[in-house]
Design goal:
heterodimer; A: about 220 residues; alpha+beta; 5-stranded antiparallel β-sheet; B: about 350 residues; mainly alpha; two-stranded antiparallel sheet; globular
Chain lengths: ~220, ~350
Amino acid sequence: MKSLWAHVRAALVLFHLTMIFVIAFPAPIGGMDRSNWKVASVQQDFAAWATLLHVSAASLEDAIYDLAVLYMRGRDAVASPFGPYLRFSGCDQPWRMFVAPVRNIAKLQVQLHVRGAGPDTWETLFEEASAEHQWHKLMFEQERLRSQMARWWWPAFRGVFNESCAYFARLAFAERVDADQVRCRYSLAPSLTPEQARAGVVPQVQYTEPLVHARPPP
Amino acid sequence: MKRVLRWWQGWVELVSRREDAASLAMARIVCGATVAVHLILLRPTGAVEQSWVHVNEGGAYGTSPALVFGWLGWGTTAHHVDVMMAAAAVAGTLMALGLFTRVTTVATWLLWRSLTSTNGMSGGSSDDLLINALFILMWSGCGRTLSVDAWLSRRRDPNAATDAPAWPRYVMIFQLCTLYWTTGIQKISNSWWPPPVGTADAIWYILQQVTWNRAPFDPYAWAPFYRVTQLMTAGTWLFEVGGLVLLLAYWYRHTRERPGRVRRFFNAPLGKRLPNVDFRLLYLAFGFSMHFGIWVLMEVGPFFLAVLVFYCAVLTPAEWRAALGARPSLPAARPETA
């Protein structure tokens, strides 16, 4: 019986290791939304590889997408037998960390509009990396918020950004009786190349389309 | 067929080994303490309400009542989330102390999973890394030493065993290699690749992302040190892509009596002056420096501590005993080679 258990244990450990390897094996999980591929910094990566491979960036992007679709089909087939065990153990393997650097400096802004103020008069409550606008600083500095803030400005996450903006609006309305609207947006500036930093170039800031939430009627 | 059977027999023997539980105990202490401290520090920030509480209960999202929440028929209300967090913090603390170790490790795994599964948006790799560690630790004998349980059982029986199966430690080593290797080969941007293929400027750009910075990064002040960031980028990429080399180092360590220059190098890369420092320890030292550097410069949650759980397992029980200045009460069942 002891000998049989040794074999069963060896098989179970081997199954676990195989699962880890298969699930961890590189795959573009979460990266198949092509709207995210159109972001400037992703396009810069395509352009860099296209130059190196002497092909056009557009054809390289299409080829990679087709390959990725095919690959994901194959991966799903190989990974599916491990699905029940993966769900039981929770041993997911999402090791896609800092796959490519973003070449934008994106800063979240939460702003408030006071009842009766001009339509373009907004008071900044919170701005990332600002020493001045530190509304609910502890919350925004917590890494669970940071992991969301790093994603909200990507096109595919607009919906969840809106849900969170509504949450910030509810917080602000509860704290400020004079507020009638809250808006959330990102300031986007191109990251500086080392040459630009040496030359003292100041990047031009643009703003994303704001999400606006009005105080609900009483 | 004979070769397969021989291989299988070798595998069964490897997985059946037992050893002093010191490495697993250290992994348990770091893992339980990480969960408990993280939850205690998280509670007063306001991030819990935003991340885990349901939108109808004052949160931001339609969070799902996963696992224990569901089994108890609880929703992700502020009160229920608080109760779960408190229970997980207590379970993590008891696990670190090694009191009712098996039960508290299973409880920590379940409660941590339940909390972090409520909202996939608000987590990171550290959540998953801790789940991976907890799942292995709960099957191991990590409470057999350096624990209240071990102290109590030694009071009853001075000869109580302090050994445990070695396979959980081997699985954790494999998990660490997989973590590094797969995160390395997924860094497909040419910003990670060293010249001439790439530009090795990934860390230069990552440091400009304000979201992850612990303190503001001033590119104008750092511009003269751009080459340093390139070295950091190339070092990080090579270290991660080389994750499987750590497995090779273990193989050479396992077969150290065989001949070969490469094997000799892996087992004593610094030569005769430091014969006990093998490639594995140098790899770990580099990894520790890298994670410490990330921790100093960036706020990425408890990732540093989650990785250290696995580093605890990479060190052999004898190394831990030497570091702790103590000897095991019982010798390992087999000589440690991994």
